[in-house]
Structures are given as C-alpha cells and as structure tokens.
Design brief:
By secondary structure, the chain is mainly α. It has eight helices and no strands.
C-alpha cells in the first residue's frame, strides 16, 4: 500500500491514513464484461456535450460515493477546461444553480433521479424538464450515459478501486 505526499501547501507534514487495497481486479477477471462496458460507455457518450457528460459523471459518482470515479472524472473535467469552482459546487448544485446553465441543471436533476430512485421511479416533472432542454435522441443518450456511469460506480465501489492514481485522459 502506498500513501500520498504528506507535505501540505503550508509546508506542514501530515500523516495521512494508508491507502486501502482494492478487493478485486474485476476488469482482469471479467475481461469480456470490461470490454463491453468500454463499448457501452463509448456508445452512450455519442452526441452529448462533453461538459454536461463530465458534470453528470461527477454528480452520479458523488451520490454513489465512488472515489475512483470522482478522481477520474474531476481530473478529466479539469483537463478539458472545466472550472474547479463549478466542480466544487456540484455537491450542492441545488443551492448554487447560478453556476450552471438551465440545460446543465436539467441534466443534474435527471442524474439524481436516475441514480437515487428513492421513490422507485423518475418523477414526471424531472423527466419533462430534461425533455425541454434535450432533443429526444440527445435525451436518450443522456439517459444511457447516466445509466453507464452508475454501472461503473457500482464496479468501483464494490471492488474498492483506489482513488488518487488516475491521470487525465488515461483511459481515453
């Protein structure tokens, strides 16, 4: 197990908790599933605004507590030019909607509804709001992208994939 650099920006040394080991390297043990997920991910992203796609991936990963995916998608978003401020605000986007476009807010609302499913369904008003901002084909792709990141999150969380080692664009 490795640890991260223990020197803070103030020059103080801090002893961080050691990194945990992953439970399972599922991608190596189920390579056909992994390859199918890669193809599904590529198909789901077609025609979607890359900014909205990363915001959706980050928000779903926050909700699902997938540290590995948060590490990946925040780094990819920053590398693509997304602001750190907008990424930070995603955890409280409902209180900081003014950081996002109406289309992005609709995508975030849909992401939460699809990811959490607390009432067992996606509310009509959430779906209708998304349908106002996305053409039908684009909405279908958005739903697919939300579904795919949720699947990735479940692999990451279940297998305890380790955050902190991803480099922007590493898997593209």
């Amino acid at each position: 197990m490795t640890t991260h650099d223990n020197t803070t920006t103030t020059g103080r040394t801090t002893e961080y908790v050691p990194e945990h080991a992953p439970r399972l390297d599922w991608a190596k043990l189920a390579p056909d599933v992994y390859k199918a997920m890669i193809k599904l991910d590529a198909a789901a992203r077609k025609g979607l605004d890359p900014v909205i796609l990363e915001l959706v991936k980050i928000r779903a990963s926050q909700l699902n507590h997938c540290a590995f995916c948060l590490d990946m998608h925040t780094k990819d978003a920053i590398a693509a030019g997304e602001s750190v401020e907008r990424i930070i605000q995603l955890g409280a986007w409902e209180e900081s909607k003014h950081f996002y476009t109406q289309k992005e807010v609709a995508a975030l609302e849909l992401t939460e509804a699809v990811t959490v499913l607390t009432d067992g369904f996606v509310p009509d008003e959430v779906y209708e709001q998304a349908a106002k901002h996305f053409e039908e084909a684009e909405l279908a792709q958005l739903i697919a992208a939300i579904t795919v990141i949720n699947a990735w999150n479940r692999f990451g969380v279940t297998c305890r994939l380790v955050a902190g080692h991803y480099r922007a664009g590493q898997y593209k």
